[in-house]
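Late entry, written up from scratch paper. The run itself happened at the end of the previous shift, but nothing got recorded in the book at the time, so transcribing now.
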Amino acid sequence: MVDGTCDARFAAVRDALAENLCVRDELGAAVAVVVDGRLVVDVWGGWADVAQTRPWRRNTLVDVFSVGKPIAALAALRLVEDGRATLDAPLARWWPAFAAAGKEAVTLRMLLAHRAGLPGIRTPLPDGAMYDWDRMAAALAAEAPWWPPGTAHGYHVNTFGFLVGEAVRRIGGTTIDAAVRRDVTGPLDADFRFGVSPADTARVAEYEFATGLFAASEPEPPSPERRALLQHIYLNPPGISGIGTVNAPAWRAAVMPSTNGHATARAVARVYDALARGGTRDGVRIVAPETLALATAEASAGVDLVLQRPSRYGLGFQLSHAESPLGHGPRAFGHAGAGGAIGFADPDARLAFAYVMNRSGPRWRNPRTRALIDAVYSALV
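Output as recorded:
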């Protein structure tokens, strides 16, 4: 049922994946763990389709949703590192239309820290609008902030990738998918992409949303005002969150860095292995240690205006906290994705962890994810 390789010391991780598949309603999944530069776990199992006709294989790609947000952020951070962008200059310097509706002072730092006040779009957009990059960028440029930018933070669930991606395009002159290939995934030989090519579609796993989008996510029944906010964030344009669209050819082919990064677990772990060791892997520098330290320092903390729960962010990265721990290390950083997928680095343990799957589980404290992470750390003791 579980295939791949696993050091004997980390056998509990293989066992946890097998248990997820047998008793925790896992459909198909893969787990990769790198410790101090060495791949100690590379296992997978289950099915790549709901009908259970295609086994999950070593090179199976799957949508990892928000796990892709930090990958996009790294492309923006490279522009800062190279001196082509500054974190605290108005973004309108490079994107003049973005100054509309009270956003003239919004900065790249605010975007990366989820403080720009742009988690959703009020103007109704038609089906499929998320596949039109220019239309999405124009809608966000015209949008008025939902709160005064810089005064609070709220998770930019589906807008983060378009905002950061357009900033990269305006400042660096390169689309976000090309910038990520050039600066991050290409140099690391990581099997991760925004936009799946026709040649790779046959190895993409079918994704199943097994629970409702908002199931168990609201601490209390939402008010009419909050329900309207959530509709704009998660459902405008229709299908932007992946419900009913995630398996469509147009979704897989599009570039939507908040939601449709497709990867293997091994690819996500390769990126985080570099980050766990200061930004360099096998002599390839993805980001300088100083830039990484800046990106993983706390930039936002407290009650999230979108999630209505505590959250912590650096610049593009989620930071571990009691409500939603990433690993067991206090300095762990990374990002979770819809339904339980996750990638993170624990620099104190020099550890990188990645879990990807194709059937969503509970949004908060997913028992499948936690079982795998706990098994990893039990082997480190």
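The chain has a mean pLDDT of 95.
(Scratch paper discarded after transcription.)
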